[in-house]
Amino acid sequence: MMRFTTLIKHPADWMTGEGADNAIVLTSRIRLARNIAGIPFPGWAKKYQRAEALEQMRPAVEALSCMKDPFSHELDSLSSVQKQVMVERHLISREHAARGEGSAAVIERRQSVAIMINEEDHLRMQSIRPGLELSAAYEALAEVDDQLAEKLEYAFDPDLGYLTTCPTNLGTGMRASAMLHLPALVLSDQIGQVLQAVNKIGLAVRGIFGEGTESLGNLFQISNQSTLGESEETILRRLERVISQVALHERNARGKLVEDDPDMVCDKIGRAYGVLRNAWIIDSKEALNHLSLLRLGGDLGIFSDDTVRLCDELLMEIQPAHLQMHSGRKLAPEERDTIRAEIVRSRLQSLEAPDIRSINKTGGDNDSSPDLGIA
């Protein structure tokens, strides 16, 4: 089995965006909730029942065709920092990290497929892909789901579909989401209108770490809210259509900002570069917001081509638990802010000053009206 140090040594495939158009849509994620028939759901189960459920599910998960030499550990065998690193990498949820005996995580080597055992439901499976690839992420997870269904009897009702702890997951048990980088919509004060339009058509908008978290670094997660009464294909088609429209609005907003106020755009990106290259103390929020502007600069041609990937790696590396793992010890917030600044300065050392003359003035049709109707 893979060790924790091996798991975190390299960024996940989806994190680097290799071969994908991830300038606006960073990642696509599919999550399926499943429970085992005849066993109390984790929230109601006694400790021995959770342990029995784990004993039944874990071998089936480890035997999946995609799980070649996976990372497979019970959560109570991991330190709090190790668990938090996995939360920051979107491999387990904050709720799962808080659970102990009877819970486990099984993660494929490339970190594209991760399975939480005994979280809110017996099984929480997820598949992540770079860019807008919801269908590909779903197909990969459907295969995992089919293989597990051959070995485990799911709790299923002919009328209600898959039975889940939370009623909002009844039916398909599927949550599909995409992480979007929307700095131009924020800078042009259109983000409120766009997100309101998304909410109106029954989709949820959350922060970088999902439900109950704020948006940092101009990153927003858009997902389906209903799972009952519609097929997986219908949910995915609607979500892909809306996310494509939001991405188009962002692309057009970038073009319009560059056309209407290039000095403001260059000033904000230049200031972000100056702070990140020279700061000796910087907290998470400030660092993420400045990296967001550097990432925008990379897309607009102000920085070299690999800047977007560098920013994506840094977005993960400067998270609190990653900093503590890097340092090999628990850090006070003030120490984290100093080490974070040091890492950012070091990684950006070779990034040349912004070339304002290279700003890319092509942006689309500049129609930024938030019409997300899907009729």
From TrEMBL:
Annotated SUPFAM superfamilies: Glutamine synthetase/guanido kinase
Gene: mcsB
Record carries keyword Acetylation: no
NCBIfam families linked to this entry: PRK01059.1-4
Role played: Catalyzes the specific phosphorylation of arginine residues in proteins.
Identification of the protein by name: Protein-arginine kinase
Lineage: Bacteria, Pseudomonadati, Verrucomicrobiota, Verrucomicrobiia, Verrucomicrobiales
Motif, RDXXRA motif of the pArg binding pocket involved in allosteric regulation: chain positions: 336-341
Keyword Cell inner membrane: no
Residues binding ATP: 27-31, 90, 124, 175-179, 206-211
Known catalytic reactions: L-arginyl-[protein] + ATP = N(omega)-phospho-L-arginyl-[protein] + ADP + H(+)
Segments of skewed composition (Polar residues): 359-369
